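A reminder before we start the practical. When you read a complex entry, don't treat the lines as separate problems. The point of joint prediction is that each chain is placed relative to the others, so the output describes one connected object in space. Small molecules and nucleic acid strands, if listed, are placed in the same frame. In the example below there are four entries. Take a minute to note the order of the lines before looking further.
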Amino acid sequence: MKIQQLRFLIEVVDSGLNVTLAAERLFTSQPGVSKQIRLLEEEAGVTIFERSGKRFTGLTAAGEAMTRAARRVLLEAENFKRVADEFRDESAGTLTVATTHTQARYVLPRVVAEFTRRYPQVRLAIREGDPHRVVENLQRGEADIGIATEALASAPGLVSLPAYSWHHLLIAPAGHPLLAQDALTLQTLASHPLITYDPAFSGRSRIDEAFRRADIEPNLVLTAVDSDVIKTYVSLGLGVGIIASMAFDSQRDSGLVAIDVGHLFGANITRLALRRGALPRRFAMAFVELLAPQLTPELVSAASREGGQSYDI
Amino acid sequence: MKIQQLRFLIEVVDSGLNVTLAAERLFTSQPGVSKQIRLLEEEAGVTIFERSGKRFTGLTAAGEAMTRAARRVLLEAENFKRVADEFRDESAGTLTVATTHTQARYVLPRVVAEFTRRYPQVRLAIREGDPHRVVENLQRGEADIGIATEALASAPGLVSLPAYSWHHLLIAPAGHPLLAQDALTLQTLASHPLITYDPAFSGRSRIDEAFRRADIEPNLVLTAVDSDVIKTYVSLGLGVGIIASMAFDSQRDSGLVAIDVGHLFGANITRLALRRGALPRRFAMAFVELLAPQLTPELVSAASREGGQSYDI
DNA sequence: TCCTATTACGTCGTCCGTAAGTATT
DNA sequence: AATACTTACGGACGACGTAATAGGA
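Here is the predicted structure of the whole assembly.
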């Protein structure tokens, strides 16, 4: 049994049982993959793939279990290499962070600034996408760290930790009548045209939930991925905006006034996720600590190892 | 990086940094091992072994961490094979149980009888030794299951579960004055010549502890590994014996009388141990369940995966 | 008929074993 | 001087790529 055979096996499974596609992704020849799969099956004495003639049509029960076991082996093999990398050059390498627009635009800049100062040799890549994209990036091992408010907590194969808590702000042009209100309610809010985030972004679920629970239909005139877009249209008088607290800067956003509406929509927890079982490199843990000081390297290291879902044979 | 290189690395470390010995144990040539180690170091770009000239004198910090990581890879590789074995032939294979004399002689026979009836295809091997030997067998992967009353709970690299509880018996020839005593005390006991287990066996630690706490010096005239030896000498009138409750059978041991002295020495818990992270085969779990019905396969399977000690780089 | 996996075959790499060399105790 | 690792070299196996073949959709 060779590591590469396991790699082939996993790639075939992840390519939807298409050996040709798997071979392309592995930058090798299709017959080579085919043969190694066969050799693996012979050595194990077990049929991994259900075949109808020459097509792979599914995984046998053995194949399911062996795929899971193979993933573990590969994960540990990656970790081995990562340990070596760590010692070869403590402070060089690549750190890929998958996150959403709001985080990338308003939260990460100060973290990135400090990080690149401390680790000038680390190539930092930020992948922006919606929360499900973030999850996917992590699951595939294409990103080391994921940061998002949605989708991370329950994703299989990942561990997530709370990074920080925030709430929503209402923004409106200076002088807007809503700003003079004493106790703002959802009812009042619903009587104005609203601009906020796209579904699945930046705590939008909390907003929907609050209105639904109150059985009020908000008047959403525009939704955006991007807080800047929201602010722009609010400035133009198209409506009042609801944005994440960290997206507002009273200096930069002069002309707009923000008031706290945390009491209406509750607190949001932005979480940080890692692939379960994948040991983060030291500089990755440093990045995490810069983002959320309570997440010490020890804590993050322990979390990455914790709770491997037990798999039965 | 190849699995075999990791195997070589671990064997060299476990051979006390002696490459020649490692090569012998691996049934291969010494230069081959030497070369693969070197290749591994080159590929990783890291020095694993400290050398003084041509001798290996120690592990570098990187070597320590990489050794730990390599062990994990190998453990998962073994698990992969075990999964394959499980499916190739659900009910064939080898089960090695490491245990102490008392367990092997008095507890396991009924378990083994039932097990071999249910799994006639499984080759069952019982390795007898003192508790530290049991631990060693497990740690080296030479045994699948360890059963002992001592040493298992705190052993690194193992997980242990309580199997059953027992207590000590006092045995004496029929008619012995001690048997007529109403409330037996340590003090009374100490006034007779005693025969019991060797240190580190069958709850001997509890016996020592009880006497030490009462600040009484017992008169140990003979110690043995083996309850049968103890019974023999008790029959000969050399003294009174203290043995494990499961070692006495009033039928077979006629001529001897036993009384419970659990109130003097407390309860002993015989534990069952597995190598941490090593997935037991189904028949191994069946063996465990026969021994201790409360240890269900689900529970054992979960335990084997639990609490991987986190390792830092 | 197209697509996909297997079979066949030649080449290159690499792993392993033997033998000689060199450094350390 | 003995022991232990490294270097050198030759042989054999194995992995991979190309080309041809067979089996399904």
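Discuss with your neighbour: Residues 18-20, 30-31, 34-35, 38, 51, 53-56 of chain B lie near DNA strand D (CB under 10 Å from a C1'). What might explain this?
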